[in-house]
Amino acid sequence: MTSAVAQAGVPVPQQARGRRSSLTRSRLRSAWLFIAPSLIILALIAGWPLARTIWFSFTDANLNNLSDYEFIGFENYLANYDGEWLGLLTDPDWWHSVWNTVWFTLVSVSIETVLGIIVALILNAAFPGRGLMRAIILIPWAIPTVVSARMWNWMLHDQFGVINDMLLRLGMIAAPITWTANPDTALWTVVMVDVWKTTPFMALLILAALQMLPGDIYEAARVDGVHPVRVFFRVTLPLIKPALLVAVIFRALDSLRVFDLIYVLTANSRDTMSMSVYARQQLVDFQEVGMGSAASTLIFLIIALLVVITLAVGRVRLGEDPR
After folding, report:
1. Which among 106, 119, 110, 108 has a CA at the least distance from the CA of 204?
2. Whether pLDDT at 17 is above 60
3. pTM of the full structure
4. Residues with Cβ < 8 Å from 242, sequence gap 6 or more?
């Protein structure tokens, strides 16, 4: 009632404003009280390891003896010795892994978004067995990434894989292809496997948004004789844009930190090395905790920056409706 009076231009009594302000503060305190345990747990399981990783990135720590290290500042990132620039930011392998990760993210998320919309539209239609189809479509997403990657690794094997055998029988190739070892096909193969696995996730989120759309809009469009394609681009797509943006952000975050899929399929191959695989190589293979932590810190900063840019471009404000 008070808000309605205020919107009508009628002055709100000071006492009413005081009650509303007190109620807002009470709700705010209750909200903080409820989320405080979650924030504490999150700080312990995520904040502390992140802070420790950032700290190690400024040291010369080695995996052989983590208790014996010295603070070296930004030397793991960039340093000049006798006129020669050294550090992570001068390593061509690092920049190549950045390019691989960005390329993988752009291509895989784009394909998954398009396929997810198509699958969601199909599953949103009424047809016999729709419930069973919705359950079946989630199977690739439910399989653990390591398991599905190992499964595809055997299927893509150049000697024993069913993919090469099928293509040879169809006459589409003349000789078996080493899909995960060939520089021309390795990254595309990883993208294909990722699309197979995570398209159901995109479809699930988009389907949830489609289920919430009001049916009277489509009934009016059908009565007016509007073409379904025009209805999709003028009505459906704008209405599901917030959910679609959330799905894209979630998938982009996953893709930017991809590790297990690429590592299982192609190991430490430079042609497909992602930023996370590079960080693991520095940390485990070379036992350079400082350098590996620096790479991990940059991954965190890159992902955080892209999230901020995405939210700004999409004009999504936390706690507010998009304007």
Report:
1. 119
2. no
3. 0.82
4. 209, 316, 322
